[in-house]
Amino acid sequence: MNRWNLAYLFRAPWDTGITPPELVELVEGGALRLGRALDLGCGTGTNVIYLARHGFDVVGVDAAWLALFKARRKAQAAGVRAGFIRASVLDLERSDNPVLSQPFDFCLDIGCFHSFGPSDRDRYVAGLRRRLRPGGLYLLYAFGPRCMGKRTVGLTSGEVSASLSGDFHLIWDRQGTERGSPSGWYFFERVT
Predict the structure, then answer these.
(1) Residues 171/187, Cβ–Cβ less than 8 Å
(2) Residue 44 belongs to domain spanning
(3) How far apart are CA 154 and CA 144, in angstroms?
(4) At 192, is the pLDDT very low, low, confident or very high (cuts 50, 70, 90)?
(5) Per-residue confidence at 1, pLDDT binned at 50, 70, 90?
(6) Cα angle: 43, vertex 149, 147; to 5 degrees
């Protein structure tokens, strides 16, 4: 059992069960048009269910089968239709899964991208570029740099911008702190 599945045996600390106000603001404020949505690292499906309830055709992707098991059960109990795919967000560029074959209008990542090193960030961005249509929107939440155990995770706002430069235009960002460490929300449009 991989470490992601182990986290979902109980309650993963990042799995709050609450849709963040930044996503609510975009959806209920009208910044997002209805369409296809992809939640990268969807966990137990909280935001997939939120988007489905608001009329999106939504798919969640996660590497943890246990998280997806819980997500499917939650979606069924909520009475919403949503797709769930077990895959790494690092493999989306080359995935031939038919559910991913049509481009998405909106992609969401709350907490995956910040855990990758530079080469994996390139793979992630290649997959995002392949799955998000030109003109599509992308909401990202990322930790700023912090020590977690024996490794450092997180990105500066400059690293986020550099990783997505050329293909994505930053619409807004909001820098803050979470548990005393820097973090940020970023809202992009895919331009090429």
Answers:
(1) yes
(2) 20-145+159-165
(3) 5
(4) confident
(5) very low
(6) 90
